[in-house]
Amino acid sequence: MNNDPHGYIYELLIKLGLSRFQASTGEFLLVRPLKIVLILVLAVVLGRLATRAIRRVVGTAQRRSPVRAASPRASQRGGTVADVMSSLVRLAIFAIAALMALGQLGLNLAPLIAGAGIAGVAIGFGAQSLVKDFLAGLFILLEDQFGVGDTIDLGNDAVGVVEELNLRTTRLRGADGTVWFVPNGEVRRVGNASMEFSRALVDVPLGKDGDVARSLKSIHAEVDRFATEWADHLIDTPVVLGVQNLSAVDGPTVRITAPTAPGEQYKVARELRQRVADRLQRDARAPRRRTPN
User: Fold this and answer.
1) pLDDT band at 11 (very low <50, low <70, confident <90, very high)
2) Which letter, b or e, does each residue of 245-270 get, where b requires 16 or more Cβ atoms within 10 Å of its Cβ?
3) DSSP states of 186-240 as a string?
């Protein structure tokens, strides 16, 4: 077995008449830099290939997502996820390349790798929740579950408009101004009121002594008028569903639904509720026509 650590360049320099020290120095100055450059070049090539592969995988997952066609920001989210994952992979590749380059300089990597391994295990145990948050954030971005400006419900009273979304946390602002910081790993369910379309729900109590038939006629008339004047905020015609329930206190309750653009449901519901209430009050004050005998 040949245990000679030297190679062809060393033997060539010896044959050219150099001493062993000069040949070893020449080999170190010629061969080691070339190996280091080759390692770095391979790292760059592998990083680019990995980036392309990740973009293809993310693009495939994005095309299979059921919300892709309904979300114009899905392609942007897919690009963000691909960039993050590509950065992590490139970081790992260059870290390995750096260790190999240090090995070419003759450094003993065993203590360094052992120390890094122990530190990695310790950090892994201590940062389990952090890794969980990052992975959950990646899936939120990839699946486009919600985005900045969406009104969402994350449970446990965390309801509001998304002000910021990153890989670790989601920041919400509630209707009362409260800011919620929710770790992405703690999100178990998401109710998004701003995806694709919304629906305004208006329940109109008629009172125990209310005239249901007359009230329904007034409500239908006002809803038709509202549909014409507020057509820009609606994506379909509002529907009067009729009596929703009966209560011993409030009497019959009539429900109205109005499909709206995302985020417009609250404004539409307030306006529709106000108009219907005013119409019912006007009609209640108006004298009833007597039917001839």
Assistant:
1) low
2) eeeeeebbebebbbbbebebbeebbe
3) G----EETTSS-EEEEEEEE--TT--HHHHHHHHHHHHHHHHHHTGGGBSS--EE
Chain segment 185-198, per-residue pLDDT in tens: 888 888 887 777 88
The CATH T-level fold of domain 8-126 is: Helix Hairpins (1.10.287)
160: its two tokens: 């509001």
**Percent with pLDDT over 70 in the chain:** 75
Domain ranges of the chain: 8-126, 146-192, 198-285
Across residues 9-36, what is the average pLDDT?
Answer: 68
Cα 176 to Cα 25, 92, 158: the distances in Å are 73, 44, 12
Say if strands 169-173 and 179-183 run parallel, antiparallel, or are unpaired: antiparallel
Q: Which CATH number fits domain 146-192: 1.10.1240.10, 3.40.630.30, 3.40.50.300, 2.30.30.60?
A: 2.30.30.60
> Quick one: tokens of 176?
């009362």
Amino acid, res. 191 = G
Share of the chain above pLDDT 90, in %: 1
Q: Residue 39 to residues 7, 34, 91, 95, 113: CA-CA distances in angstroms?
A: 18, 9, 15, 11, 18
C-beta of residue 206 within 8 angstroms of C-beta of residue 253? yes
Encode pLDDT of 204-230 as tens digits: 888 777 778 888 888 888 888 898 888
Is pTM beyond 0.70? Reply is: no
CATH topology of domain 198-285: Alpha-Beta Plaits (3.30.70)
